[in-house]
Amino acid sequence: MKKLALALSVVAAMSSSVMAEGNAEVGKTKAIVCSACHGADGNSMIDMYPKLAGQHPAYLEKQLTEFRLAAKTGGAEGRMNPIMIGFAMGLSDEDIADLSAYFSSQVQAASNVADVPAAGEKLYKGGDTARGITACVACHGPEGKGASAAGFPMVGGQHANYIKIQLTQFRDGLRHNDLNGMMQDVAKKLSDADIEALSKYISSIKH
C-alpha cells in the first residue's frame, strides 16, 4: 500500500510531462510491420501477444521506449524481450508516438473466456489482506481500464494467456519495468492458481 500511495503521489508530475504528439494516420502505415503479431488493428489473434487496441497511448509509448532502451543497453535497462527489442531498436521518438497514437485509437475486441474462477474476481476486487495482496481494482479500476495519467494500463479484455505470462514474469523477476516495483510486489505473493484465476477474470472484463 505504501508503494501504491507513493505512485499515486507522482500522478500530477507525470500528467504535466510533455509527451510527443503522435499522428494516428501516419502510425497506421508504420504499424503494418506490427500486424503479424498484434493484428492490423491491434487485436492480436495470438494469445501470447497482447492486444494493443485501445491501450493508453502514454503506456504504449513507455513500453516501446523501454524496449528500445533494452536493445541499446543489452537488457541492462528498460524492458527486455527478444522479439520486441529487434523491432524497437530502430524506432525514433516520432515513430513511437505515431504507433502509440494509432493503436490507442482502435477498438479492443472482446475476449471469450469460459469457466472464469470466482477466486479471480475476489482477488481482483478485494485482494487478500492476510497475504498482503492489494486489490487490482485499486490501480486498474472496476472495468480494468487503468489510469493513463498514473501510468496504469488498461487490462480488462486482454488475452488471459498474455496476462498470465506477464504476472508470472513480474513474480519471477523477469520483468521489472513497473512503476516503483508495484507489480513485482503484488505478483511475488501470487500462487500459480492465483495467477490462473486472475488472468481469466481480467480477460473476461467487458468495458
Automatic annotation (TrEMBL):
PROSITE patterns to which the protein is assigned, alphabetical: CYTC
Grouped into one coarse class, the protein's main location is periplasm
Species of origin: Shewanella vesiculosa
Coiled-coil boundaries: none
PANTHER family hit by this protein: CBB3-TYPE CYTOCHROME C OXIDASE SUBUNIT FIXP, CYTOCHROME C4
Q: Which UniProt keywords apply?
A: Electron transport, Heme, Iron, Metal-binding, Periplasm, Signal, Transport
Lineage start? Bacteria, Pseudomonadati, Pseudomonadota, Gammaproteobacteria, Alteromonadales
State its location(s): Periplasm
Signal sequence coordinates: 1-20
Q: Can you give the residue ranges of the Cytochrome c domain?
A: 22-107, 115-206
Q: What's the name of the protein?
A: C-type cytochrome
